[in-house]
Design a protein that fits this description.
11 helices; about 350 residues; alpha/beta; about 35% helix; eleven-stranded mixed sheet
Amino acid sequence: MINIKGYDLLGNDTPEGIRFAWGGTRFGKLIESAAFNTRTRLGGEPICAYTTSVSAGCILHSQGCPCIFCRTGKVLPFGGLLTYKEIAKQNIFMVLADMHCDDHPALAGRPREFAYMGQGEPGYSYSQVRMAIELTNRAMKELGQTVYRHIVATSGVPETIRLFKSDIQNYYTERVTLHLSLHAAEQRSYLLPINEIYPLQDIVREADNVESVTKEKTCVGIMLFWNFSPKGSNQTYSNTVENVLPLLDMLNPSAYRLSFCEYNVTPDVAVAEVYPECEKKRLMQAVQDRHFDAKFFSSFGQQELTACGLLGGKQPDNYASEKWCSLDCMAEDLIEKLN
């Protein structure tokens, strides 16, 4: 079982959350997860949002097809898939840490959102993720906590989407939504080589009726690349409006919503420029003309290399306190009690 090793605080002026580092005898590198305590739903109540890892590194690294922009896949060697208990333990521990945070007592009662978007491709770990979700749900009930939702992310494994739809109807006891990291259409094989294994058309075909099962639109992630160039390459790519439109043309606005995420560049993977504001306005006009629900998303923890696609096994700046080691044991005991 993984165990808590240390942490980093996120945000310079205003605390945004914590990056947790986990050790485990099976892995040569640290596993990372993160808790973001400042996130607030538009028009709704504040929630505590958590990013959870499903493996040590990413299995796509071992298959020779990591996403070209992802630090986890490009930098970390693949160490192995986590068990459902290890996935759930991250969730439970992070909630316990918020519940027992004396400096921020408001965190104790907030609804909890768990996003499986840390290290690893959840599509290849879905058998463990699904069990981790239900184990987490039982733990939250035991702790008197409210689950806002779980987010299952994948770069697009059709078999996972098929199983997800069945589980929505027959297995999950709390709200679970699907996030597809699609990013592009015509250049997708360049950005996500997994596209050669699971073509975009197959992913969309399988996901088209998810909304009819979940009763809410599937989120499609589109990274805002601008003059993106991988390390050691002279090729550049930008997700201009013209490059995004072919992807939008494949999607039904009644079944999908869009999340445009800023790209978090790190020099050991690539160089890139900040996405221009004028292009954002053009992009938003284009999606509105096609009647999509859309938002722009800025990742927390960018400077600390903790945001989307940046997790790279960084050693923590702070060691886990005795209190946190006690919470680690509490999480493990709860898992064994409920399992």
